């Protein structure tokens, strides 16, 4: 039946609402192929309808199948775009390799553009009054306390804090750090909050 | 937020800084709760940012062990959170309804009552271009002939202005007309100062924008 594949595609992403799954290149190719077949059939029959009025209904049905496929494909992409946006807020401008793999090349392209646009916006914030931008991704959660205790999960190296102190982040070492400065590192999986 | 201590920051600014913060808090609250984007308060945000800078400089002069340092720092990080979240909420709305917002904004710019800051406007336009480019590249350029158009009207999402909101009246407002959905029985109500109500957003949208009521 027409449009069956596209429903499979949408169901697939519906099942994983929270997470991003692999970009389904193969299925999208098949759907577009189906659209081309339908389109060709329609072109032939549309030319013939002048003689044979009974073909008109067939053409109409095929046309709505085409419309539906298009709409669903766009919805699939749009839905993924929204998920990719969240990734930018969570991971910053560099995606971890395992997540990068889930995106198609075009989507990665989109991610970079979104990221650039957001970065441009954030950099220009408050420029009139001598700020060089505000990182909106730093303060995602309401601040509960000034400092938190964190456990370092990897050998990260030196980290310079805002007040000029330099600390060494070694694997399995614990530190008592300002919350605002470790949020990004926690999201990147370098630090883990233990209080 | 009551322990807000701006005494560090100078003599006359004390009262204004407090007012600025209150205004930002209200705008933030309204922005978070209203379905559509509201006029920006960039003046207030910039003023507050300047204030923060000033306070940070003053805090750095204090010795690290001073109790005041940590109290002020905590307070500052709260204010920063509010500002960041305020701006972020606006960005989210802009992204979600970018087509309709850009269209409305074009008219508003002509009449000089723009809701977005120039930065936000540029962001919205760029965002829409990116979406269009991505959809075209992946799908639209591959599908057959006359299906390739990017139908902007079919793509736009509209904020639900009929949704209900909780609100509090800052001053007494008379004669708000609540249109009946089926068109025959309009109702007129008055809001007393300080009273709280649940109403459909679209009837009080203007009151939110001019500050006569606030969303809670």
TrEMBL record, chain A:
GO terms for biological process: DNA strand elongation involved in mitotic DNA replication. Coiled coil: none annotated. It is found in: Nucleus. The keyword Transcription does not apply. One of its GO terms (cellular component) is GINS complex. Keywords: DNA replication, Nucleus. Residues 45-125 form the GINS subunit domain. Residues 144-194 form the DNA replication complex GINS protein PSF1 C-terminal domain. Its main location: nucleus. Belongs to the GINS1/PSF1 family. Component of the GINS complex. Required for correct functioning of the GINS complex, a complex that plays an essential role in the initiation of DNA replication, and progression of DNA replication forks. GINS complex seems to bind preferentially to single-stranded DNA. This is DNA replication complex GINS protein PSF1. It comes from Leptosia nina.
Automatic annotation (TrEMBL), chain B:
This is DNA replication complex GINS protein SLD5. Residues 159-216 form the DNA replication complex GINS protein SLD5 C-terminal domain. Signal peptide: none annotated. Belongs to the GINS4/SLD5 family. It comes from Leptosia nina. Its main location: nucleus. InterPro entries: GINS_A, GINS_bundle-like_dom_sf, GINS_Sld5, SLD5_C, Sld5_GINS_A. GO terms for cellular component: GINS complex. Residues 51-137 form the GINS subunit domain. The GINS complex plays an essential role in the initiation of DNA replication. It is found in: Nucleus. Keywords: DNA replication, Nucleus. It comes from the Eukaryota. It holds the Pfam family Sld5. The lineage of its organism: Eukaryota, Metazoa, Ecdysozoa, Arthropoda, Hexapoda. GO terms for biological process: DNA-templated DNA replication; double-strand break repair via break-induced replication.
């Amino acid at each position: 039946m027409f449009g069956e594949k596209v429903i499979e595609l949408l169901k697939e992403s519906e099942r994983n609402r929270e997470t991003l799954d692999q970009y389904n290149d193969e299925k999208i190719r098949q759907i577009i192929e189906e659209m081309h077949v339908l389109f060709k059939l329609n072109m032939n029959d549309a030319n013939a309808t002048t003689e044979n009025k009974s073909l008109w209904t067939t053409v109409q049905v095929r046309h709505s199948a085409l419309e539906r496929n298009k709409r669903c494909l766009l919805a699939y992409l749009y839905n993924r775009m929204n998920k990719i946006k969240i990734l930018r807020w969570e991971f910053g401008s560099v995606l971890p390799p395992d997540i990068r793999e889930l995106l198609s090349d075009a989507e990665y392209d989109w991610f970079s553009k979104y990221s650039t646009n957001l970065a441009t916006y954030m950099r220009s914030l408050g420029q009139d009054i001598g700020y060089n931008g505000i990182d909106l991704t730093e303060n995602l959660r309401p601040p509960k306390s000034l400092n938190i205790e964190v456990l370092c999960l990897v050998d990260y190296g030196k980290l310079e804090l805002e007040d000029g102190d330099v600390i060494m982040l070694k694997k399995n070492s614990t530190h008592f750090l300002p919350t605002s400065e470790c949020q990004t590192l926690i999201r990147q999986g370098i630090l883990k909050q233990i209080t | 937020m009551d322990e807000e201590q701006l005494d560090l920051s100078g003599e006359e600014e004390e009262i204004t800084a407090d007012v600025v913060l209150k205004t930002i808090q209200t705008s933030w609250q309204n922005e978070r709760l209203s379905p559509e984007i509201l006029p920006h308060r960039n003046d207030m945000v910039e003023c507050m940012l300047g204030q923060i800078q000033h306070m940070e400089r003053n805090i750095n002069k204090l010795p690290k062990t001073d109790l005041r340092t940590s109290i002020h720092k905590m307070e500052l990080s709260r204010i920063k959170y509010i500002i960041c979240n305020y701006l972020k909420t606006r960005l989210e709305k802009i992204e979600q309804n970018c087509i309709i917002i850009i269209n409305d904004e074009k008219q508003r710019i002509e009449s000089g009552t723009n809701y977005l800051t120039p930065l936000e406007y540029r962001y919205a336009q760029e965002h829409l271009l990116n979406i269009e480019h991505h959809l075209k590249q992946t799908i639209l350029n591959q599908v057959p002939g006359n299906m390739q158009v990017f139908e902007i009207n079919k793509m736009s999402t509209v904020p639900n202005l009929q949704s209900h909101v909780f609100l509090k009246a800052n001053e007494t407002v008379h004669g708000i007309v609540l249109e009946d959905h089926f068109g025959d029985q309009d109702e007129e109500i008055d809001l007393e100062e300080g009273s709280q109500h649940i109403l459909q957003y679209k009837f009080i949208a203007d009151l939110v924008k001019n500050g006569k009521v606030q969303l809670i």
